[in-house]
Amino acid sequence: MKNIFRVVNVCEAQTITKSDGSEMIKQQLVLREQGGQYEDAYLVTWFGDEPLKVTQGMCIAASIRMRVNEGVYATGTGGVPETRYYQDAVLQEYACLMLGNIKR
């Protein structure tokens, strides 16, 4: 999905060690579609070499990749298998939008 979003919240960046021994940054943020307080919001994850250069309240143009995952889990004492679904949203690319004062 490609759209213009407002950054609602930015979490602290975490350093992750990959299986090959190298490190990468994982950071989560909440993005809300432009249009108002009740527009759709998304919790997205960023993976990269450095932390995001965005702040709360900033407008960005972003591309988000969404994927639905399926897992089978045993529930209760009987161990009855139950299928559950969850959704991943990953920030693929972004660009900060500089909106200056508009004179009328």
Main pleated sheet: 6 strands, antiparallel
The unreliable regions are none
Q: Do you know the CATH topology?
A: OB fold (Dihydrolipoamide Acetyltransferase, E2P)
- Tell me the domain tally: 1
Q: Strand pairing plus helix content: what structural class?
A: mainly beta
Task: Please describe what this structure looks like.
By secondary structure, the chain is mostly beta strands. The chain has one domain: Beta Barrel (OB fold (Dihydrolipoamide Acetyltransferase, E2P)), CATH 2.40.50. It has no helices and six strands. The chain has strands at residues 2-10, 14-17, 23-33, 41-48, 59-75, 80-96. Strands 1, 2, 3, 4, 5 and 6 form a six-stranded antiparallel β-sheet that branches. A hairpin with a 5-residue loop joins strand 2 (14-17) and strand 3 (23-33). The radius of gyration is 18 Å and the shape is globular. The model has no long low-confidence stretch (mean pLDDT 87).
Summary tags:
104 residues; OB fold (Dihydrolipoamide Acetyltransferase, E2P); 0% helix
What is this entry, summarized?
With 104 residues, the protein is mostly beta strands. The protein has strands at residues 2-10, 14-17, 23-33, 41-48, 59-75, 80-96.
What is this structure's SSE topology?
Layout (H helix, E strand, L loop, with lengths): L1 E9 L3 E4 L5 E11 L7 E8 L10 E17 L4 E17 L8
Antiparallel strand pairs: 1-3, 1-5, 2-3, 3-4, 5-6
